[in-house]
């Protein structure tokens, strides 16, 4: 169904998808305009509808594509045999930064999509939301070792606090790279993440 779109060069595909993601994040489904999407993507409206039947088709495709990208990247790159929580968290942070470097608004798109209330898509969207929640990244912490954590801690809150911290680190690094117009230095990211991990270990380990 989307073979014409997939025949485009990867760079062109990503540009169109990022344009649509950006507009949907800013406006929500009902107020998103295909005029704004094509302007952002630098293509004609006729060409957009050559690849996608209408705004609804584009939105549903975008959700499926983004979900596939996120799940595939995490499945491929996170070593599930690694039981150390902090090592797995560090791996996830690097993967997330790589994803955001290609799709800057991909996670914000999911946040908006999960709260989307448009009558035009809500019915079609229910099964997709269910699938997304079933394959969400909660499984990324399956099998981790918790014996080193202090007994007086609420592990759910501890994990949330660390995820929030590393989300902030990811955004800060990407913003810095964008301002300086430089590629992300992953050695620097790894070193900084390691420093935070050392702090967390001192705070939360026995």
TrEMBL record:
UniProt-listed SUPFAM superfamilies: Homeodomain-like, Tetracyclin repressor-like, C-terminal domain
Record InterPro entries: DNA-bd_HTH_TetR-type_CS, Homeodomain-like_sf, HTH-type_TetR-like_transc_reg, HTH_TetR, Tet_transcr_reg_TetR-rel_C_sf
DNA-binding residues: 33-52
A Pfam family that the UniProt record links to this protein: TetR_N
Domain of life: Bacteria
HTH tetR-type domain mapped to chain residues: 10-70
Keywords: DNA-binding
PANTHER family documented for this protein: HTH-TYPE TRANSCRIPTIONAL REPRESSOR SCO4008, TRANSCRIPTIONAL REPRESSOR
Official protein name in the record: TetR/AcrR family transcriptional regulator
């Amino acid at each position: 169904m989307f073979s014409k779109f997939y025949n485009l060069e990867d760079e062109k595909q990503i540009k169109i998808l990022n344009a649509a993601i950006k507009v949907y994040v800013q406006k929500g489904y009902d107020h998103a305009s295909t005029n704004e999407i094509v302007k952002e993507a630098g293509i004609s409206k006729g060409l957009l509808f050559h690849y996608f039947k209408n705004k609804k088709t584009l939105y549903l495709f975008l959700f499926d594509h983004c979900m596939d990208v996120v799940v595939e990247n995490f499945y491929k790159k996170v070593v599930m045999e690694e039981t150390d929580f902090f090592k797995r968290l560090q791996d996830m942070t690097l993967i997330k930064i790589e994803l955001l470097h290609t799709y800057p608004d991909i996670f914000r798109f999911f946040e908006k999509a999960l709260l989307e209330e448009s009558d035009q898509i809500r019915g079609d969207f229910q099964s997709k939301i269910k699938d997304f929640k079933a394959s969400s990244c909660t499984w990324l912490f399956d099998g981790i070792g918790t014996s080193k954590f202090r007994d007086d801690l609420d592990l759910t809150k501890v994990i949330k606090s660390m995820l929030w911290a590393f989300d902030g680190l990811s955004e800060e690094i990407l913003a810095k790279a964008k301002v300086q117009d430089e590629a992300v230095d992953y050695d620097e990211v790894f070193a900084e993440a390691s420093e935070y991990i050392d702090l967390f270990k001192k705070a939360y380990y026995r």
